[in-house]
Amino acid sequence: MQLFYAPDLEPPVHTLDEEESRHCIRVLRLGRGDWIHLTDGRGNLYRAEIIEADPRRCTVRVVETQSEFERMPYRLVMAVAPTKNPDRFEWFLEKATEVGVTRIIPLETAHSERRSFKPQRGEKVITAAMKQSLKAYRPELSPQTAFREAVAEPFEGRSLIAHCEAAHSARGKRFLPRTIRPGESVRIFIGPEGDFSPEEIDLALAHGFEEITLGPQRLRTETAAVAATVMTATVNGPAE
Helix (H) and strand (E) counts for the chain? Predict the structure, then answer.
């Protein structure tokens, strides 16, 4: 399957943007009469025939539409502090998109290594990963958000914070795969290399967050974020 991203697609006839047109005609060497698939990133998968093989304005006719294509049975929001090396955070964006995530929030925390985040590159990484993994849902990438604002944001589901300190609550820290349930909406906060500050952990708990652990090993930020994404997907995997 050759998958193209067309966020503004409205069947039956659509013209790809210049970048996608060039990739389709010049790189893949497809032509009039060939078939491709497109997605709007909102769950719709389209099968279409090329009717004009112009490398700047490739035009297609949609002949089949699948709605809610491979929709995830759960909702996952990952709030993660960007790493000092932007390549490592982009690696997380790519892998989280491949595994399955609904929304990603770059967090600004007390111990953040990176205080600014440029979304343009991140958006391209997410789009490429969506196409490569043949998904019809494109994760939302939010602007960088201060920790205090992010924890106070309303959320219909479980709110979890992973950290390396001893538990701050009487309930204690629970292993992520053993505390979440299949099908529920979850948001998970992952801190920077210096971890969340004690004040941030307490603030999260005051907003109804639950403390979690990803295991006894100490993980780098991007590794922890991918591990949490994979653990959540595993809990929501197909029934035997």
Answer: 7, 13
Nearest to 232 by CA among 194, 195, 189, 179: 179
46 CB neighbour count, 10 Å cutoff: 24
pLDDT in tens, 52-84: 999 999 999 999 999 999 999 999 999 999 999
Q: How remote is the C-alpha of 8 from its chain's centroid?
A: 20
- Is 85 in a helix, a strand, or coil? coil
As beta bridge partners, residue 106 has: 80
**Which segments within 113-229 are labelled E, that is strand?**
140-141, 145-146, 158-162, 174-175, 186-190, 210-213
Which H helix or E strand runs over 104?
strand 103-108
Q: Is the dihedral of CA 56, 61, 63, 69 positive or negative?
A: positive
Amino acid at 223: T
Residue 240: pLDDT band (50, 70, 90) is low
Q: Coil, strand or helix: which one is 159?
A: strand
Average confidence (pLDDT) over 115-129: 92
